[in-house]
């Protein structure tokens, strides 16, 4: 019953957010923008790597292989200020909507990188696996997979893949939800869940998710 309730919440979020139709995107042009930028800021590859693999040390996320619409909407959110990140905002603030569409198409079509070898202990990974796949219902924490799909490999633009993402980025973003710095979820689903996670649980689930293979497009 609890899992069913969590799934219903996720479905409700989909209805609230809606899925508008995307215009035609040019992934070849997106590659050019990703590698060279538009002349007003650093190219995407400077932070996210030549293949969209990100940088764990800098908490720059993996973006290769993520849902195209999710990537597009995220860049729009940085432009509008719905999501706040000074580095992202200043480097894409001059991009037109078509530029964002092209970039999203390019990165969505790249293969997801292999996960990094886990540095966490077996005990910590086991706790992370439990949170990610089973949740902690005593603390009203549903499993990540109830929204982010089987093996947390993503469902659509509203629930992106989180398997294979850098642990540093996962932790950073969950903390942003906890502190009210991320407010782009109209149903406040992630904010509510994030605030129930202990530091121990957050470290564990971030380490576990980072060790898992991402979905291949």
TrEMBL record:
<dbReference type="InterPro" id="IPR024167">
    <property type="entry name" value="Cytochrome_c4-like"/>
</dbReference>
<feature type="binding site" description="axial binding residue">
    <location>
        <position position="190"/>
    </location>
    <ligand>
        <name>heme c 2</name>
    </ligand>
</feature>
<keyword id="KW-0479">Metal-binding</keyword>
<feature type="signal peptide">
    <location>
        <begin position="1"/>
        <end position="25"/>
    </location>
</feature>
<feature type="binding site" description="axial binding residue">
    <location>
        <position position="88"/>
    </location>
    <ligand>
        <name>heme c 1</name>
    </ligand>
</feature>
<feature type="binding site" description="covalent">
    <location>
        <position position="144"/>
    </location>
    <ligand>
        <name>heme c 2</name>
    </ligand>
</feature>
<dbReference type="InterPro" id="IPR008168">
    <property type="entry name" value="Cyt_C_IC"/>
</dbReference>
<dbReference type="GO" id="GO:0042597">
    <property type="term" value="C:periplasmic space"/>
</dbReference>
<keyword id="KW-0813">Transport</keyword>
<dbReference type="GO" id="GO:0020037">
    <property type="term" value="F:heme binding"/>
</dbReference>
<dbReference type="GO" id="GO:0005506">
    <property type="term" value="F:iron ion binding"/>
</dbReference>
<feature type="binding site" description="covalent">
    <location>
        <position position="47"/>
    </location>
    <ligand>
        <name>heme c 1</name>
    </ligand>
</feature>
<keyword id="KW-0732">Signal</keyword>
<feature type="binding site" description="axial binding residue">
    <location>
        <position position="148"/>
    </location>
    <ligand>
        <name>heme c 2</name>
    </ligand>
</feature>
<keyword id="KW-0408">Iron</keyword>
<protein>
    <submittedName>
        <fullName>Cytochrome c4</fullName>
    </submittedName>
</protein>
<dbReference type="InterPro" id="IPR009056">
    <property type="entry name" value="Cyt_c-like_dom"/>
</dbReference>
<feature type="domain" description="Cytochrome c">
    <location>
        <begin position="25"/>
        <end position="213"/>
    </location>
</feature>
<dbReference type="Pfam" id="PF00034">
    <property type="entry name" value="Cytochrom_C"/>
</dbReference>
<dbReference type="InterPro" id="IPR050597">
    <property type="entry name" value="Cytochrome_c_Oxidase_Subunit"/>
</dbReference>
<dbReference type="GO" id="GO:0009055">
    <property type="term" value="F:electron transfer activity"/>
</dbReference>
<dbReference type="InterPro" id="IPR036909">
    <property type="entry name" value="Cyt_c-like_dom_sf"/>
</dbReference>
<keyword id="KW-0349">Heme</keyword>
<feature type="binding site" description="covalent">
    <location>
        <position position="147"/>
    </location>
    <ligand>
        <name>heme c 2</name>
    </ligand>
</feature>
<feature type="binding site" description="covalent">
    <location>
        <position position="44"/>
    </location>
    <ligand>
        <name>heme c 1</name>
    </ligand>
</feature>
<keyword id="KW-0249">Electron transport</keyword>
<feature type="binding site" description="axial binding residue">
    <location>
        <position position="48"/>
    </location>
    <ligand>
        <name>heme c 1</name>
    </ligand>
</feature>
């Amino acid at each position: 019953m609890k899992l069913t309730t969590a799934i219903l919440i996720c479905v409700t979020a989909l209805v609230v957010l809606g899925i508008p139709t995307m215009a035609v995107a040019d992934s070849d042009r997106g590659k050019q923008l990703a590698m060279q930028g538009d002349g007003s800021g650093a190219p995407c590859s400077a932070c996210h790597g030549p293949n969209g693999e990100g940088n764990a040390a800098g908490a720059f996320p993996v973006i290769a292989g993520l849902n195209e619409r999710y990537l597009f909407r995220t860049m729009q959110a940085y432009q509008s200020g719905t999501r706040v990140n000074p580095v992202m905002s200043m480097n894409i603030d001059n991009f037109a909507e078509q530029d964002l569409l092209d970039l999203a198409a390019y990165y969505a079509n790249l293969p997801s990188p292999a996960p990094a070898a886990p540095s966490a202990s077996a005990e910590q990974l086991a706790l992370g696996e439990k949170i990610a796949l089973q949740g902690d219902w005593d603390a009203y924490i549903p499993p990540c997979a109830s929204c982010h799909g089987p093996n947390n490999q993503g469902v659509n633009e509203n629930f992106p893949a989180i398997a294979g993402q850098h642990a540093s980025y996962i932790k950073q973003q969950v903390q942003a939800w906890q502190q009210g710095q991320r407010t782009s979820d109209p149903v406040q689903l992630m904010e509510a869940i994030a605030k129930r996670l202990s530091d121990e649980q957050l470290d564990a689930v971030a380490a576990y998710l980072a060790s898992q293979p991402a979905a291949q497009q």
